[in-house]
């Protein structure tokens, strides 16, 4: 990558966009709603069960200008854009979100919270991971806490992640996909006792859509 392109990425004029697609949100509070997804390359968290490991190396994804991203979005009649990854907060989100707001779009973020928040978002899904602690600053701003349940200890860890959240933050437990048959019954039993939690399923995978 030449120096000019590096500067463009650092300034947030371009982003290592892995893919962009219009689909149905499959997880969390907005599950079942249509949204345009921007998957930004680059992640330094490295969950062993990640289903988009090809997003980790940002060098594999050519920087795309915010202008081009917005032009492509204009081809769709949408009202919501989900910025996901990878870990999108590795990059400067200010110019992207400002451009999206100029078009009157609602912007959602999916983040592990391991990097400082940049940009303007209407909804923040905070999904912390054990392998790398989240920064405390994201917790008060999170609208949704989503914990991936991979084993029984994750229920204890999920309760610990509630510390510092705002009172209106929605709480979700989601089975890790490869262990859904084992973990889903445990999540159901847990939520029946701990009723402040809800279950999140990766419904897009059941529907076999992106």
Describe this structure in words.
There is one protein chain. The protein is an alpha/beta fold. It has one domain: TIM Barrel. β4, α3 and β5 form a beta-alpha-beta unit.
Q: Percent of residues in helical segments?
A: 25-40%
Mean pLDDT: 94
Any idea of the CATH topology? TIM Barrel
Element-level helix/strand string:
HEEEHEHEEEHEHEH
Looking at this protein, list some descriptive labels.
6 helices, single chain, alpha/beta, 210 residues, 9-stranded mixed β-sheet, TIM Barrel
Which helices and strands occur, and which strands form pairs?
Elements: H1 3-11, E1 14-24, E2 34-40, E3 63-65, H2 66-73, E4 80-84, H3 94-102, E5 106-111, E6 123-126, E7 144-149, H4 153-160, E8 170-175, H5 180-193, E9 197-199, H6 203-207
Parallel strand pairs: 2-4, 4-5, 5-6, 6-7, 7-8, 8-9
Antiparallel strand pairs: 1-2, 1-3
Helix pairs in contact: 2-3
What is this structure, in a nutshell?
This protein has helices spanning 3-11, 66-73, 94-102, 153-160, 180-193, 203-207; strands at residues 14-24, 34-40, 63-65, 80-84, 106-111, 123-126, 144-149, 170-175, 197-199. With 210 residues, the protein is of the alpha/beta class.
